[in-house]
Amino acid sequence: MLLSRLSRVGLGASRILSRGRCIPSCRTVSVPRSYGHYLQPQLQSHQGKLYVAFVFQRHHYFSTEGSSGESSNGSQEKQSISVTFVDKDGEEKQIKVPVGMSMLEAAHEHDIELEGACEGSLACSTCHVIVMDVDYYNKLEDPTDEENDMLDLAFGLTETSRLGCQVIASPELDGVRLAIPAATRNFAVDGFVPKPH
Ligand code: FES
């Protein structure tokens, strides 16, 4: 059964190679990693050129992904962006936020007074922040329905309001400024169920 699956993989590779679309198409031919030690001997002893080409591409693909992935992951791990929080008194605090971290977590790590009553589970609006520059707001992923539902409960909702726990640091947000509203509403966590309009 394994050999027959490998044959199908070889056939797929053959079609791909004959169309001259090696690298993109190799991504669509998935070869379980556990087959790797079966493939290489087969390649060299039985199917010759076809498999050699396939393995080369596969190796090339994985090694390219591995090296760029490692370096991009490595740089991502180290990469952080600059975020400025502006509190209700207008005081600013600029912090470095690692890519991938939410603004709520970042605020808490730096003792910035941004509530987070539900700890990021989208059950409150106490982590409400206002993105001060619409250009940055437009770079964010659209809010989910759940986030919008919670934002509807937020105090002082604006056109560029978001929930801090849903804003994740990414390179394009470098330099973003977030205002913390003067007050929060904590209906959801307190058990308040709003009446339908
Ligand atoms: Fe409750 Fe963000 S902490 S929704």
TrEMBL record:
One of its GO terms (molecular function) is metal ion binding. The keyword Phosphoprotein does not apply. Its cofactor is [2Fe-2S] cluster. Residues 81-184 form the 2Fe-2S ferredoxin-type domain. It holds the Pfam family Fer2. SUPFAM superfamilies: 2Fe-2S ferredoxin-like. One of its GO terms (cellular component) is mitochondrion. InterPro entries: 2Fe-2S_ferredoxin-like_sf, 2Fe-2S_ferredoxin-type, Adrenodoxin-like, Adrenodoxin_Fe-S_BS, Beta-grasp_dom_sf. Keywords: 2Fe-2S, Iron, Iron-sulfur, Metal-binding. It comes from the Eukaryota. GO terms for biological process: P450-containing electron transport chain. This is 2Fe-2S ferredoxin-type domain-containing protein. It comes from Linum trigynum.
